[in-house]
Amino acid sequence: MSEIPPAPLADHLCFALYSASMAVQRTYKPVLDELGLTYPQYLVMITLWAEDGLAVGQIAETLSLESSTLTPLLQRLEQSGLLVRRRDPENERRVIITLTDKGKALRGQAHCVTDRLVSSSQMSTEELARINGEVRRLRAAVVGE
Amino acid sequence: MSEIPPAPLADHLCFALYSASMAVQRTYKPVLDELGLTYPQYLVMITLWAEDGLAVGQIAETLSLESSTLTPLLQRLEQSGLLVRRRDPENERRVIITLTDKGKALRGQAHCVTDRLVSSSQMSTEELARINGEVRRLRAAVVGE
DNA sequence: CAAGAAAATATTTATCGCGATATATTTCGC
DNA sequence: GCGAAATATATCGCGATAAATATTTTCTTG
Description:
62% helix, 2 strands, 7 helices, DNA-binding, two-stranded antiparallel ribbon, homodimer, mainly alpha, globular
């Protein structure tokens, strides 16, 4: 039996996702630097702009991250003055995250980040939305819906 | 003028790519653990299985990584006995990476990793190949071909 | 042609992000 | 009340980026 050689790099969907994700993050970086955010921090802010007052675990669920990843990340955002962390009085196991005025104010500048992808890719928003749907469908399939 | 609020998380293509890439990496992890590789190390091995004897800079170019990322990664792979690093006698600025027999032998077990994505996603290989093409096209557009 | 500037290449260092594991701490069920 | 579950934190190693450094090669130019 001859062994099946692994496919060349170009055929690996995992590499396409990996390198595309990195490329987008590099595109965002200059704008995020101006906002004082890293990319995962930016994802947390998007989550909180949509719904404030979430617990750490809820943010972790939304972003598919471990709470052990989020805790230091949120501590840094708190030190930046963008949010406040406090125990939930009704369930002291939980830590509730609340945006400060400064954190809310950052929301207005955030659309510049997304614009960056649209302009750099030179693709229509319809095309980008279509690819978004495909990739989300793939992810859902991989994690089992 | 009211400010444009950023779109909800689901509309962000960057998050779709990011979370899909992470999901695939988590799927691969158990198999890669058995091989003693991390995911970026696996990408390096795929590159070298396709063409051995590359310089650090060529691997960096292929994977869109910085040499400062690759140097410690390659040092770890060397310590694992999978490859050898040595200066190119013809151009002493370069460091040539060569697979050991152990590194070459690992190639036969590697298709198990890819199988993992195909089976977990429950999508046809045609479908996966089509998405691969879409994502690659997006990446190429973002980085400017 | 030779000397020095510039470019190419890899490494080092520092900082942050992320995963995995282990460890509290609190709450809930029996 | 005690054990089990849920939640967050601490710790350690690897990865990614940027900036600084070192070395070699190539270019320029007097």
